């Protein structure tokens, strides 16, 4: 099991360890920023058995028995509470308990099951067997249902023994406010651009900057997109494909990816209308003639809002070609300055 943390998470990890005051941390960050890896790295540092004075910044040593057991996901004082769908990402084996042998045929569940919460509560009641404390990691915490969250709340307020909690969370607003307020927040920042580019280049990505910008500066998403065929060349072409309404050229794109890219394109046009350079798509042709800025901004804002409603439904099985056509048509007309001359 690799224990290397993505390089852009190094500094946030050191900061979280040095500023930690509460026994419960809430790690906030979109999936793309690696909140799960980050939370595991925190747990590893807390469970490291090398004396703290020998570990700069309180980071895990990576060599002791405690670190080794965390890396193997077999540390008796660490419990990872994650849904089935994230077990592999958390480095855990598939759930042996399975459900009546159907585990292979159905989609892995995204919920944190009540049984797992119950087992976690039992774990909290045990005395630490190896380290001086126990760690319960819950990710994503917004998947806890009301009953489970309330059951945990009590132990979070008054843990029965030496206990640390780390809750990972992509949507803190979906969390019970009482749960949120019991935790110290750690917000994962947007990855540092230089570190992200260096990492992408080390993964063998060509023209990494083009892909990174098109993917909102999120390196993990950029790599995933490139591996799915949306490489620098594809992103370079994208603005002109939209301006030409080239639905056929974009036919293979998953709708959520397309919707998000169109949102970024609208945002870039807004920036241009305000006299700023494009951020995600530097290849987007600048506005040539002066335009009715106020009207253009209003239309782009409306279109961006409409795209957000489309994004919410993008997981649904629409008729893809028709959906792509509709998306392109509306976005294109909002981006086109000629329809709104001065
Ligand atoms: Zn260690």
From TrEMBL:
EC code: 2.7.7.7
Transferase among keywords: yes
Highest rank taxon of the organism: Bacteria
Enzyme class: transferase
Metal-binding is among the record's keywords: no
GO molecular function, one term: DNA-directed DNA polymerase activity
Pfam (any one): DNA_pol3_delta2
Protein's organism: Sphaerotilus sulfidivorans
TM regions (residue ranges): none
Name the UniProt record assigns to this protein: DNA polymerase-3 subunit delta
InterPro entries per record: DNA_Rep/Repair_Clamp_Loader (IPR050238), P-loop_NTPase (IPR027417)
Keywords: Nucleotidyltransferase, Transferase
């Amino acid at each position: 099991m690799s224990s290397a943390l993505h390089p852009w998470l190094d500094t946030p990890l050191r900061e979280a360890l040095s500023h930690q005051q509460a026994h419960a941390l809430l790690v906030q960050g979109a999936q793309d920023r690696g909140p799960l890896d980050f939370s595991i790295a925190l747990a590893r540092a807390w469970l490291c058995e090398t004396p703290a004075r020998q570990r700069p910044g309180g980071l895990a040593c990576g060599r002791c028995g405690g670190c080794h057991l965390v890396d193997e996901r077999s540390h008796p004082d660490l419990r990872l509470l994650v849904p089935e769908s994230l077990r592999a990402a958390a480095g855990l084996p598939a759930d042996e308990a399975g459900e009546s042998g159907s585990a292979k045929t159905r989609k892995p569940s995204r919920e944190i099951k009540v049984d797992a919460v119950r087992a976690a509560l039992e774990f909290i009641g045990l005395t630490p067997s190896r380290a001086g404390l126990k760690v319960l990691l819950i990710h994503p915490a917004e998947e806890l249902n009301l009953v489970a969250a309330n059951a945990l709340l009590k132990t979070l307020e008054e843990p029965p023994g030496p206990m640390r909690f780390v809750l990972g969370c992509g949507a803190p607003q979906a969390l019970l406010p009482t749960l949120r307020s019991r935790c110290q927040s750690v917000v994962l920042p947007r990855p540092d651009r230089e570190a992200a580019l260096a990492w992408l280049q080390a993964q063998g990505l060509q023209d990494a900057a083009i892909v990174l910008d098109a993917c909102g500066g999120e390196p993990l998403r950029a790599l995933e997109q490139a591996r799915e065929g949306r490489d620098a060349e594809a992103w370079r072409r994208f603005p002109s494909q939209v301006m030409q309404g080239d639905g056929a050229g974009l036919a293979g794109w998953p709708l959520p990816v397309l919707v998000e890219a169109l949102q970024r394109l609208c945002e870039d046009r807004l920036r241009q209308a305000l006299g700023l350079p494009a951020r995600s798509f530097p290849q987007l042709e600048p506005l040539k003639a002066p335009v009715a800025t106020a009207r253009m901004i209003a239309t782009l804002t409306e279109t961006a809002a409409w795209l957000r409603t489309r994004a919410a439904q993008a997981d649904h099985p629409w008729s893809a070609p028709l959906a792509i056509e509709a998306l392109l048509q509306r976005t294109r007309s909002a981006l086109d300055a000629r329809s709104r001359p001065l």
